Automatic annotation (TrEMBL):
Domain Abnormal cell migration protein 18-like fibronectin type I positions: 19-88, 105-161, 175-240, 257-319, 337-396, 406-469
Keywords: Signal
This protein's name: Abnormal cell migration protein 18-like fibronectin type I domain-containing protein
Signal sequence interval, chain numbering: 1-15
Source organism: Caenorhabditis angaria
Top-level taxon of the source organism: Eukaryota
Amino acid sequence: MKVILAFLLIGFALANDTKCTYDGKELSNDEVITVQNAFQIKCLTEDNGSWKTEIVGCVTPGGEKVNVGEKSDDGQKVHECIKNENGQVVLKESRGTKADCQGGHKSGETWTEKSFKFTCAEGGVTKFTHCVTADGVEIESGKTGKVGAIEMKCEQHANGTVSMSAANEPSSYECEAKDGTKKKNGEEYKEGNFVRKCGDYGIAKIVGCSAEGVTETIPINQNVTVGDFVHSCVKDGDKYSFKTFGKQKKSNVVPLCGHEGKTYKHGETFIKQDAFRVKCVTYPNLTTEHQVLSCITPAGIEIPIGRSVEEGELIYECTNGDVSLKTTPGKTAKCRKIYNVGEIWIEGLFKVRCEPYGKSSLVSCLSKDGVEIPLGQQRRIAAGYVMECVIVGDNVIMRPAKEAKCQTSSGETKNINDTWNEGNFVRRCESYGIGNIIGCHIENVGPIGINTNYTRGDYVHMCLKQGDQFYFKTVPK
Ligand SMILES: *[C@@H]1O[C@H](CO)[C@@H](O)[C@H](O)[C@H]1NC(C)=O
Ligand SMILES: *[C@@H]1O[C@H](CO)[C@@H](O)[C@H](O)[C@H]1NC(C)=O
Ligand SMILES: *[C@@H]1O[C@H](CO)[C@@H](O)[C@H](O)[C@H]1NC(C)=O
Ligand SMILES: *[C@@H]1O[C@H](CO)[C@@H](O)[C@H](O)[C@H]1NC(C)=O
Ligand SMILES: *[C@@H]1O[C@H](CO)[C@@H](O)[C@H](O)[C@H]1NC(C)=O
Ligand SMILES: *[C@@H]1O[C@H](CO)[C@@H](O)[C@H](O)[C@H]1NC(C)=O
Ligand SMILES: *[C@@H]1O[C@H](CO)[C@@H](O)[C@H](O)[C@H]1NC(C)=O
């Protein structure tokens, strides 16, 4: 930052008591004033009456006075008061040697941002010094360093950005086998009983196993049988293992299955628990197994696994998987163990019919006053409203039918909100099929509201509601 002031005033006065004039003000000899908050001007007079003003110093924004040709440094900022060859005086501002860096870091402070380390250098300059790896290893800017086996380069680019990246192509790294030999990327090599492949960054991975007398690599999690040996290459979690088993030698002992005191040879079948036909299966390791082939019903009918058969009132099924003989009611099975197919009985508020396979199905609902409402239908009960017998979710329920229509005394059907006349009353169809009285009807006149009178000739017609009762009365005036 620069502030410039460039003038030198010269004048002449007659009086012995010579004074300088500056900006309309009089100054005595040697008097110094500050102008523009930035410069110091001094008055110089001669005995012969001549005078001049001269810039003798600068004033910093902080109010410090600096003589021409000198500088001040408060750490953060340096202010220099310079007079150039044209006689101009300039206040030059620059960062102090101990100035803070951006972000408020103090001079000399070092800090790390992400993976990069900086220091606040002289003059408030932020200097990038190091890259820092995840393990805390520092690599100097412009240098390379090892992170494990990988060479990383730490650099600051011309555009100012800093980076830490692999110094070489991932595939350029060689792997080192246990015997010290170097292997190229992609190369496969044996190391004991394992086969490794050299991968990126010189990291070799196990890709299989190697066994004596086996030319090909044994893939992971596979067995290879050679002569009397089985070679097994296993990966279990992160662990690899290689094992060789001697194959089971033929034994003279013939394994037999035993059941209820009898023995059976491999392949023979027998009946178990009166319900299954099983086959004897034996293994070279002398273990035996009873393999279920089919199920047998109490009547002695054999059913293959996965099939079923009807026997009397029951259906027998030979289930898959963990084989079992399962029974379910047959077509002629009784319901509740007492009702025959087609029989109808009453259970609480419901009428139920026995269907084939022992299934009971609901026929209708029965209201308390004995009205039978077939499933899915509505009926008006004695209390005057309509009930419905419906399936809601898994249940059959009987409930007031909110959306039910009304029926007039003459048997007509009315929709909700319809009004009609019934004798001297006006009714409106409301929820649950109830026709409520909403007024009275006078012949040749029309409707009148509840609790209103209508006078015609010598008579007064009254439409009244008392308690729950409605009345229509005609009385002489
Ligand atoms: C001018 O001032 C000087 C010193 O103040 C004094 O000695 C001198 O006599 C004065 N001259 C006149 C003409 O007043
Ligand atoms: C007055 O005196 C000064 C210094 O002695 C001289 O430089 C200047 O020319 C003189 N001025 C006049 C008007 O005599
Ligand atoms: C800065 O330069 C480096 C190296 O040339 C480049 O990878 C990076 O993208 C540049 N960054 C910006 C913001 O231009
Ligand atoms: C390999 O053989 C071993 C030993 O007989 C056995 O436990 C394993 O299940 C076999 N593995 C495969 C993949 O067949
Ligand atoms: C014997 O061999 C059978 C079939 O290979 C196997 O399922 C069983 O687990 C083995 N039993 C023993 C005790 O090794
Ligand atoms: C019956 O009338 C009421 C009030 O005017 C109205 O809110 C309702 O929607 C009507 N119902 C039908 C089924 O029209
Ligand atoms: C209707 O008339 C009767 C008998 O005159 C009277 O008692 C009653 O107050 C009247 N009601 C209205 C609402 O005017």
